[in-house]
Prior knowledge:
Number of strands of chain A: 12
Distance between the termini of chain B: 44 Å
CATH class of the largest domain in chain B: Alpha Beta
Largest sheet of chain A: 6 strands, parallel
Oligomer: heterodimer
Strand content of chain A: 5-15%
Order of helices and strands of chain A: EHEHEHEHHEHHEHEEHHHHHEHHEEEH
Amino acid sequence: xxxxxxxxxxxxxxxxxxxxxxxxxxxxxxxxxxxxxxxxxxxxxxxxxxxxxxxxxxxxxxxxxxxxxxxxxxxxxxxxxxxxxxxxxxxxxxxxxxxxxxxxxxxxxxxxxxxxxxxxxxxxxxxxxxxxxxxxxxxxxxxxxxxxxxxxxxxxxxxxxxxxxxxxxxxxxxxxxxxxxxxxxxxxxxxxxxxxxxxxxxxxxxxxxxxxxxxxxxxxxxxxxxxxxxxxxxxxxxxxxxxxxxxxxxxxxxxxxxxxxxxxxxxxxxxxxxxxxxxxxxxxxxxxxxxxxxxxxxxxxxxxxxxxxxxxxxxxxxxxxxxxxxxxxxxxxxxxxxxxxxxxxxxxxxxxxxxxxxxxxxxxxxxxxxxxxxxxxxxxxxxxxxxxxxxxxxxxxxxxxxxxxxxx
Amino acid sequence: xxxxxxxxxxxxxxxxxxxxxxxxxxxxxxxxxxxxxxxxxxxxxxxxxxxxxxxxxxxxxxxxxxxxxxxxxxxxxxxxxxxxxxxxxxxxxxxxxxxxxxxxxxxxxxxxxxxxxxxxxxxxxxxxxxxxxxxxxxxxxxxxxxxxxxxxxxxxxxxxxxxxxxxxxxxxxxxxxxxxxxxxxxxxxxxxxxxxxxxxxxxxxxxxxxxxxxxxxxxxxxxxxxxxxxxxxxxxxxxxxxxxxxxxxxxxxxxxxxxxxxxxxxxxxxxxxxxxxxxxxxxxxxxxxxxxxxxxxxxxxxxxxxxxxxxxxxxxxxxxxxxxxxxxxxxxxxxxxxxxxxxxxxxxxxxxxxxxxxxxxxxxxxxxxxxxxxxxxxxxxxxxxxxxxxxxxxxxxxxxxxxxxxxxxxxxxxx
Lengths: 408, 415
């Protein structure tokens, strides 16, 4: 869909994903690296190989072409700027302190070429009081909101165990770039797209960052009907239910299950108890509850939290006899909000993902490795798919100079 | 911002784009929210009988649970026109068909197969409108063995590997904060949708886009997937530690007004490590040879985390942030809802946007996450109340006359 677009990609690990998305969608994405190689080539996970092979680089630089320049040599920087002059889009996450001395900052590039779309990804935005802050993925996660409310008991707040913040920012950058490309289709003019990773991760708080602003001083998640605030988690998502009530051991691992109640999602829990009842795993009195109206019965005192505990105990004993596969199968057949907790091995073995054509095959070193290959499936135009392996350092410098600059 | 001197404003990036939003909760509505921010006209259809989940979720205006008070709903739907419709009725379905005829884009998030039962699926709709761009978002996709899976985004985070990867190594998996794939799916959906619009602009060809939250989530774990494929390594959760950087963690600070306070601290190289040790007045650590390498610091992680925690314990989180950033060490307080409106950087970028609200006076939403110098986005209005724009949509957009609207109202189609 984007075969007509030339993207010059000056990102490091902070923005690497942006160009991967645009390349998957068909654009000609040329990844620029300093002569010593991108720092993203050192980003974990790093299997203990020599030389270093970064799984981060190999997946998120996949499908790009690669050029390398010595940024200490003015004549090479001049060639790089000429490539920017031949591009529809420049996307960068290099630090401002590196871009400006080389005339590669958005203002300089757009001044030379008004129809250029120049997208810049940074932790806090291009300018402002924290723009020069030292940053890592964790620091952005803390600054943008998703860290603080995510507590496991009294322990300090938790992040996801692998970097995520900049992936959100880089994906946003791809969308922001496309908005500017569409605008250019009408106006003929380019512009700067200034992406803040701090802002990007606010969405990952489920609007919790807005709580104080709208005057909700107790938006905590641990609220159940008939207790303290009297508010009800009727979401079905279990968002307002504590972790220990949503994780259950099964015969070969763990499952995620939220006993949802209320009109929108209580029906799913009715389905679960129908399964238990069929196998005689729950007292008839409990099996007869309608979870759609349970909040009212709890608030009225007709049922108590001891009754809820009895229901949970029945579920706990039942699930210990079931495997992850059985739970997943039942979730599909019986419409349950009940799910096996998958690890990377489970994902690799999923028949569903196989049937959907989700995987792409790329060479990583001398291995042929399956990686996520489709961000979406599309009918009509050719949809997104991974276009090939990540480039070697400077692998396409000559051919790109020839194609983009007409150099022999 | 980066380019305000380069371009003057060019109007709206998506001026003239017409969008029918049939989605609900978070993953679908966030797509239309961005389209509205950048100038599209978005009509959102919902039911006032089966009230959509996001309206039932906190945070709430004034802390009061009310279907017109959810800031989550407000954040996902700002700037849209709201129409209530009984989609189960033939009359309601005809209104949708008329809206499809008006629209360039349809976004929906029903269970796979539901729209086909109503005769509103892509294959039926495109017969009358071949250049339609339609996007379906669901937990596991429109086909395949998992496609009938019921679920919200937390099901997505279980199947995509995030549940397993969040938590302390010696404790239960904690899972993500909320339905994580709801935050990932719409970003990948949006860029694909915008690419399809660019393709349509150039060729006139429409498209159907099938986004699966599980697949979007796994895409954000591509490096871990590749690691398993490369040598069989299964990624495991390890609290706040990093595979490479050390120290790397979240540390308790002095409580303020009875509330726990924390700061995130991470060290990328030996220079930052020495700067941290000096800031903590620990020259003994700064000078230790075994801590010069990341490997050495990882080996001493327990000791170093204790040293940092001892130092932060008596200090205010924002003081730790200021002192460490002053020394060039990555650090930031763990921003809470209370901190968010006061954050100097977010305020500089006017990220929180105040909007007039008919019931609450004003409301607040997050602004766009990217500033476009020539065609900036902004939320145009608060999210609609149930049925707020019924008349406007039917009369002005669809051109229904008063009699027809009266028949729909009396027939209880508009609910």
